Amino acid sequence: MPQASDDLYKAAPPGDGRSTNPLILKLESLATLADEDRAVLEQISANPQVIEPGIDLISVGDKPDGVYLIMDGIACRYTLRANGARQIMAYLIPGDYCDLDVALLARMDHSIGTLATCKVVRIDLATILELLRHHPGIAHALRLATLVDEATLREWVVNLGRRSAPERIAHLMCELLLRLRAAGHAADEGYPLPITPNDLADTTGLTTVHVNRTLADLQRQGLIAMSGGYLRILDRARLEALAEFRPEYLHLGGRVAA
Amino acid sequence: MPQASDDLYKAAPPGDGRSTNPLILKLESLATLADEDRAVLEQISANPQVIEPGIDLISVGDKPDGVYLIMDGIACRYTLRANGARQIMAYLIPGDYCDLDVALLARMDHSIGTLATCKVVRIDLATILELLRHHPGIAHALRLATLVDEATLREWVVNLGRRSAPERIAHLMCELLLRLRAAGHAADEGYPLPITPNDLADTTGLTTVHVNRTLADLQRQGLIAMSGGYLRILDRARLEALAEFRPEYLHLGGRVAA
DNA sequence: CGTAAGCTTGAATGTCATCAACTGAAGTGG
DNA sequence: CCACTTCAGTTGATGACATTCAAGCTTACG
């Protein structure tokens, strides 16, 4: 039975001494951190707060005054149309944070909310500025992470514009495998994906019904297995081929791609 | 007859003393520049080079070593799928530039090419760094511009994911009106749009045929008129209503929105 | 055990894609 | 100077993919 519990990731650091902190793991997949940098990040992300699914961390029109760092669970950026249609524009997974440049723009033009139960750390503006000023290694890694976020957003545009329903879903699953793995939240054969088909629909620009049909198809083809909020990737090679998945845009430098 | 020629914009500065430099105009719609900042930008963007349509400024896999600033015309970010399908992920209009953070990431994960004849200035890395270091006002404005680019990308995700064909096209046209106006390249009633229906199709995730049909529909409804590479917006209120256009994401602060 | 909410399944509809033939404008060469 | 080519845009017919609506089926929960 696949391990869906988060406790898996809270165990003591593994034998090789690597951290289990998703932010540290993610940044280290992009750049090299000094021991001191790691210590600072470790300290900042202590004592996360638990947030239920479906709660906005930041809403449209807000003037945000801090940054939220996701330590566990899944949140998303989204907007609502007047007719109630929702479009999700990004997934925030462990190690992701929202709006480092929060101080620069006046108002949020979209919302950020939880899709599943999350553990979240709120970091205030002063701490962010301190971090960026006095820890150039961290600042550099955060900057890289922002660039990867942008590249990911571009890839989503391609997904919505030029891929079929099964391709869209397959591509998303391949992307999440690598991103979650970089954050230490995915096993080799799959990962917890505690979101509803409805969320998936609002991500891929489809309807819930069609997402479920497509998901069933992918299972029938032996590519994946989804149950209990856990996604097992049964045939990664074929899934990636179907999605035409090219991981370069994540700029993981081969560190977690294998 | 609407004025499609670029020469319109190269005339001597208007009576109010404002520049006609698209980069300066764009940045001033986001922040306040000092006279000295303006002078530096004016100097940097002198002597643009003419590039024919359909030419890559930067190609996938390149390790870029400079920044391209668009002074006139339209370029785009795009990728190609294995089957030849193209998805355009951003329009670069006058005042836009590519990849300020060029030095940070190893390789381009997409290409940048011209859609129409462009006037382009290449700025080398040293100049960029000098600019960012010694002109904090410019650095700040450029940073804001980058955030707006990201917000625009998110809006494109919404466009592709949750809007119908006519809505997508209408939304794009509304967006370009404001962006071009901020760069001093649009009149009140329309602007030069020297791109093909095929380009529009690869932008909106549709086929060329369907774009042409939809375009014809929009004309029949009296919303727009397109001819000779010039787009006239005949009924802006209805066009914006159709697209459900909310300009906040462009963060123009009311300066050019009216 | 009963209710509600979400997932599944089926059938009908609609939007957009595909394919192919036609039109028209622009450029080329005899 | 005019036929010829070419290519972009148009139009129509057909079909695929995804939506919509609705009914049955689980599952979770009180």
From TrEMBL, chains A, B:
Concerning InterPro entries, the annotation shows: cNMP-bd_dom, cNMP-bd_dom_sf, Env_Response_Regulators, HTH_CRP, RmlC-like_jellyroll, WH-like_DNA-bd_sf, WH_DNA-bd_sf
Give TM regions: none
Alphabetical list of SUPFAM superfamilies matching this protein:
cAMP-binding domain-like, Winged helix' DNA-binding domain
**Pfam families given for it?**
cNMP_binding, HTH_Crp_2
In Swiss-Prot or TrEMBL terms, this protein is called: HTH crp-type domain-containing protein
Query: Which controlled-vocabulary keywords does the entry list?
Result: DNA-binding, Transcription, Transcription regulation
CDD domains (UniProt xref): CAP_ED (cd00038)
> Which ranges carry the HTH crp-type domain?
163-237
Question: Which Gene3D superfamilies does the record associate with it?
Answer: Jelly Rolls (2.60.120.10), Winged helix-like DNA-binding domain superfamily/Winged helix DNA-binding domain (1.10.10.10)
